[in-house]
Amino acid sequence: MLEDIPVLSLIVWLPLLGAVVTLLMPKQNARLLRWTAIVFSVVPLVLGLLLFASYEPILGGGAYAEHGTWLSVPLNAEAWSASQGVTSYRLVFNYLLGIDGISLPLVLLTGIVSTMSALATVHIHKRWKTFYPLFLLLQTGMYGVFLARDVVLFFIFFELTLLPMFFLIGIWGYFGKEKAANRFLLYNGLGSAVMLLGFLILIATLGFSATQTAGGVELVYSGSYDTMLANLADPNAAANAGGAMFLSGNLRWAAFILLLIAFGIKLPFFPFHTWMLKVHTEAPPSVVMIHSGILLKMGVYGLIRFVALLFPGQIDSWAPVLATLGVINILYGAILACAQKEFKLVLAYSSISHMGIVLLGIASLNETGFEGAIYQAVSHGLISALLFLIVGSLYERTGTTRLDELGGLARSLPFTSGILLTAGLASLGLPGLSGFIGEFLSFLGLFDTWKWLTAIGVLGVLFAAVYVLRGVLAMIHGPMQEKWIGLKEARFIEALPMVALTALIVLLGVYPSLLTDLMQHGFDGLLKELQTRVGG
Amino acid sequence: MITTLTWSDSWYLAPEIVLAAFTIALAVLDLALPRRVGRDVIGWGALVGLVLAGVFVCWHIHDLNVWKDAGKDAFRNVLGGSWRVDNFGNLLKLAFLGATALIVLASLGTVRDREVPIKGEFYYLILPAVIGAMAMSSSGDMLTMYVGMELLSITTYVLVAVRKKSGQSAEAAFKYVVTGGTASAFVLYGMSFLYGVTGTTHLASIGQALPGALADYRAMIYVAFFLMIVGFALKLALAPFHAWAPDVYQGAPTPVTAFLAVVAKGAAMAMVYRIFLNTAQFATGDDSQVRDDLFLALGVLAAAAMIVGIAGALKQQNAKRLLALSGVANAGILLVPLSLDLTNLHSSLFSEFVYYLAAYVLMNIGALAVLTLVSRSSGHEQLSAFAGLYHRAPWTAAAMTALLCSLAGLPITAGFYGKLYILFATVQTGEYWLAAILLGTTVVSYYVYFSFIRQMYMRGGENEPSVRMTIPTGVVIWVCAAGSVALGIFPKPVLDWVDGLFSLTTDFLAR
Questions:
Q1: pLDDT (tens digit, 9 = 90+) per residue, B342-367?
Q2: Which sign does the torsion angle of CA B7, B9, B12, B18 carry?
Q3: What are the φ and ψ backbone dihedral angles of A87, each rounded to 5 degrees?
């Protein structure tokens, strides 16, 4: 049944429809606007869940794929002489959506975190009629990123997340919001620019195909991801055969490094991380839920989809570099997280540390590692969304999240404190909660290939225990300050997402094959390629 | 062979003749009308003239298509190629006429007596300026082009000075006259060298004669081209020849600023395309060194313009100067397709140029129209005039956001697609350094253009006076904003159309 409707398009565009609907509503009625936004966030989630229920890993997502030509632009055919029999010479950008075991978990994550974040927007107190359209537009961008199968379409959706985020940070953020918004814009803009250059190199080489038809030869440059994969594997393709469209070794390396940096900024890895600290501390919590929960995962997704899958040779020889970067991220994030006085910064640095684990998973270049990377991405998305949800609730009541100003909250807010403790334990990787599975799979994958690096990386888990417990315990235990006595416990609309996210974290912790089964065949092509490379 | 102008040739000059007739008629009307009658009538008259000229241009396009279908050449030479009707010229003429029509429409109701004492003059001087621009894009002979350039220059010198009582305006006009004169001198000097070595001013003949002349006059040819490059760089305000632009743009009345930024720049660009493609791109034959050097120089100039323009705009607090510097960067972008080597596989240098020019017309005129409204209500042209525009005029703020996204090259706008298209060509021809600079400056430009957005959405605005919108200006703003978005989502019809009309061999291998 799902195959008969354009389900992927619905997932992508329904939030945009929601944005239009909210634009038509009266601007004082915050409740109405909020519930509209919630509804338009829930519907794509439900569609995603239906897709999840009917998805068959062995068949892949081919049945749901959507093809359409968005643009077919004529190029200067006079560049070719008449003797070559060229009938058309075009640049084609397609509207291609597709789903597979790599993107489905992230689509689900987007649905869940967006919905929870929509519930958490009760803490937004001004300019709702501007907030909700942007919030929904952001969702369209995120779904599009995970579903697009054309590099230009991917890029457009990627950029589409930029503008709403800039506004969401810059208008509704805290004291340093404008600075944070600017830094977000510049770093991510730089990432996009680098990415576009990489993509253009790919379009001009891997994207080129010549089709022999009855009338003559049709030459097409296309951004289609599947065309690129096919050309990559085909030794006779123009990109592999030399000539003007030859993707030479140097060019391959250039594109590889460009894309690595582009997604590395988003992830973020070590020297490119400062923007995300600012966003974590200055953006409103419901936006940080999305930022930390989903936007960082666009980096993970990009690294796997475009860097690992399109450049098997390069990733093979750079695996130690990636693993080292991962270890640096883990330790750098973890150690600095131990020294923070602001809880939001503890979480920000812990995100850096956790994204390091994702890098390790990718660098392992085996199925366990890749699955671990995605698992870790999903799990970290849920956990950090939960943590920032709580941060938002606490800030609403206390006006601060500094560790030295809080303390003993367990007495006045037992429920919230309990959830906070659970989330903290999940974050430090307690077995039985989702964080553990992701870390375990990633380390296991890497241990196969790089034993020493794994050993160093695992140290990060020790630090995680230190910073999480130090942060969480400082807030919920210890002497309670007078002024926190009368705090009100979480309202229903805040408690609902807290319980839901906690339940999911536990579920993924005890039943990991829920996700790992999905991913089973997602990496087949790459693994085969890697095996032939290392000689079986 | 000596050819003379006959009556039948007037058909090929019809758009220009219409404009000239309207100029004279409106000037006389201005003289005859009593003072108490508002001069907006003359503005509407000018608008009618522009539209009528546009109709004739479309008619020409239609005629050329008919000839093409009949298997004949899709161009016409008048006076031995000194005037040339082809689709390169026609498309650019449409762009110039459309841009001028938008500018005139935007000024109806915003140009006030206090600023421009003789309003009628403003409207009927803009018409001969357009004739000049059209001559620059529609000729195969350096002299005719030069005459067109002077016509454009001299009328715009007056237009810049039209705010008689303002010291700033007078200063701007003086600077513009001096730099404009210098630029003309450089161009003419360069042309004279080309004439010296080839004995002709006709572009096609120069193209044929150059390879032969190269052996003996190599240095002269370099001098000729580099003098012309300097002259055109001054006209186009390409860095490092751009220092006059912010002052002149700031001093001129905003509609004139828009005209300088869009039409004057586009016309100079058209002339550069004509001259360089006809004489240098194809004609140097096997000895490609000269050609490579020239196009490298253009590439470097484009890169310098992009870098300097955006870097200068970074700390700019005056909105008009900021847009002037953004114009410097955009001129650099417009020059990129030309600087790519045509001998390699190349997507399509003309559609890239004309598409980005169309995008630039829309975003620049739109942004300047918003600036006119906003600065009138605040009484100054600083960026802070935009403070809280979102609260005061939400729809105008939304339109401005779309225009800024287009300027910054964010999807899905005309600016994004135009840049993507140009970038693809640079990557395809392997000019990665140029692609990197284009992308790098684009990132920095986010910061520049978003300074408007910060003001509009994130700064106060409770105490600022409200914005009064006039209908013609509103129409212009919305046409530009909607056009910027629509061109971004559906660039295909435009590009298909351009591709169907334009052909390198008929329009550029001048015969």
A1: 655 555 678 888 899 999 999 999 99
A2: negative
A3: -95, -35
Q: How far is A101 from chain B (nearest CA, A)?
A: 28
Distance from CA of A156 to the nearest CA of B (A): 6
How far apart CA B1 and CA A14 sit, in angstroms, is 69
Length of chain A, please?
536
Give per-residue burial for A93-109: e unless 16+ CB within 10 Å, then b.
Answer: bbbbbbbbbbbbbbbbb
Residue A178: which of B458, B495, B505 has the nearest Cβ?
A: B458
Rounded CA-CA distance A127/B42 in Å is 45
CA B497 to chain centre: 20
- Report how many Cβ contacts below 8 Å link chain A to chain B: 103
Residue type, B483: G
Task: Report the C-alpha gap between B9 and B76 in whole angstroms.
Answer: 10
Q: What is the pLDDT of residues A200-250, one digit of tens each?
A: 999 988 888 888 887 778 888 888 888 888 888 877 777 777 776 777 788
Interchain CB contact of B499 with A (< 8 Å): yes
Cα–Cα distance, A203 to B424 (Å, whole number):
8
DSSP conformation letters of B103-166: HHHHHTTTS-TTT-S-HHHHHHHHHHHHHHHHHHHS-SBHHHHHHHHHHHHHHHHHHHTTSTT-
- Locate the chain B residue with the closest alpha carbon to A70: B490
- pLDDT, tens digit, 9 for 90 and up, residues A419-444: 999 999 999 888 889 889 888 889 98
| B413 interfacial to chain A (CB closer than 8 Å) | no
E strands within B204-291?
none
Polymer length in residues for chain B: 511
Structure tokens at B418: 């135009």
Q: Are strands A208-212 and A217-222 parallel, antiparallel or unpaired?
A: antiparallel
Residue at token pair 């779904």: A143
Q: Compute the distance between CA of residue A454 and CA of residue A360 in angstroms, rounded to an integer.
A: 8
Token pair for A536: 């079986």
Q: What strands, in cross-sheet order, belong to the sheet with A217-222?
A: A69-74, A86-94, A217-222, A208-212
Look up residue A307 and give its DSSP letter.
I
CA-closest candidate to residue B153, choices B248, B235, B39, B85? B235
Q: Which residues contact A28 (CB under 8 A, 6 or more apart)?
A: none
Number of domains composing chain B: 1
Q: Whole-angstrom Cα distance, residue A273 to residue A299?
A: 12
Nearest CA in chain A to B436: A197
Place A272 in a pLDDT band, splitting at 50, 70 and 90.
confident
ipTM of this complex prediction, to 2 decimal places: 0.90
Chain A, nearest residue to B497 by Cα: A74
Give the nearest partner residue to A185 out of B350, B405, B447, using CB atoms.
B447
CB spacing of A186 vs B503 below 8 angstroms: no
Question: Is A155 within 8 Å of B428 when comparing Cβ atoms?
Answer: no
Q: What distance in Å separates the CA atoms of residue B302 and residue B424, rounded to the nearest whole number?
A: 16
Write out the residue range of the structural domain in which residue B227 sits.
10-508
- Residue of A71, A72, A76 to mutate, testing the B interface (most B Cβ within 10 Å of its Cβ): A76
Q: Is residue B195 part of a domain?
A: yes
Query: CB count, 10 Å around CB of A324?
Result: 18
Q: Is residue B149 packed enough to be buried (19+ CB in 10 Å), middle (13-18) or exposed (0-12)?
A: buried
| Chain B contact for A71 (CB, 8 A cutoff) | yes
Would residue B1 count as lying in a domain?
Answer: no
Q: What is the mean pLDDT of chain A?
A: 87
Nearest to B424 among A181, A194, A203 (CB): A203
The reply to whether B284 falls in a domain is: yes
For A126, phi then psi, to 5°, come to: -145, 160
Answer for the pair A285, A178: CB distance below 8 angstroms, yes or no.
no
Nearest CA-CA partner of A209 in A242, A245, A178, A235:
A245
